[in-house]
Predict the 3D structure of the following.
Amino acid sequence: MSEKDLQLNFTRRKLVTAMGGLLVASPVISLVGCGSGSDTTDMTTDETTTDTDTTDTTDSGTTTDSSDTSSDADSSDSSSSDDDSSSDDSSDVEWATGGTAAITVDFPDDSLFETSSSCVVALTEKLTQGPCYFSVEDTDGDISAEREGLPMQLCLRLVDEDCNPLSGYEVEVWHCDNAGIYSGDTSDSSDSSDFQSGFCTDNDTAALASTWFRGYLVTDSNGRVDFKTCFPGWYSSRTIHIHFKVSKNNVSSVISQFCFPDALTEEICTSHEDYASRGIQDTTLSSGKDTVFGSDYDEFVFEYSKNSDGSLLAYKTIQISA
């Protein structure tokens, strides 16, 4: 790890630790699967103003075969986020490099979500957005801005309490690059009041001039949005994660985040050429020390698979409780 990485991680650990005591009122989040046969549970969670938003989770990151366009894995087989929960027939394919330009497969069809577990969140006016959020006007589904990294298809589906698709909702996502740095060009942003540039960008020149790995799309008639992006990197005291925000006419929104199974993050961070120089993240889910998820992470772990072109497919259903 370079001296710069060490300094960035040290600085962020100090800030995250200092901010870790600032908690806001937490919603009750019920966890239900659409079509997966999962039970309904309720849990109350805290939100940390450190790096993000709602601190709750579900599901243990089901690995599926995506050499075709459907998911065959049963999410009920997932029991631990630290381990791969099923085999992947594309495992003999090496992880792709070259960013989103390396993606050659189409997005999978909606059957992908037939066994996908749901992250269910109450739709409220506003929750904490974390220090690295600012709004962007880019509606292009490729949010990578040609940044390097493991190419990834990110597929999200929005449904109501009865599992009916919700169309016309804005789904916004943002995350850091493979070095754990967020982009920071707020010049065209209409909402950057909470953005903490020094912490999020490490004052990196390229980051300050870009809006990489930020964007939003509007859900289609099937309640779905599809992004092209790259697998995020990590920074100290946080597991690898992706933030998301759901809005309707820019009035009501819910903000939270998803994460990845430990087995997947370890594989990528130790073997992929764009991540291996920094090594495995210092805060795994299984450690229970993530400053946002803690030990309650299962329900917000992405389901995923390796595509036949070596890109990563990550997907999840978001069930809105109005």
Notes: The longest strand covers residues 312-321. The chain has a mean pLDDT of 78. The two ends are 45 Å apart (CA to CA). Helices lie at 3-19, 197-201, 205-208, 262-271.
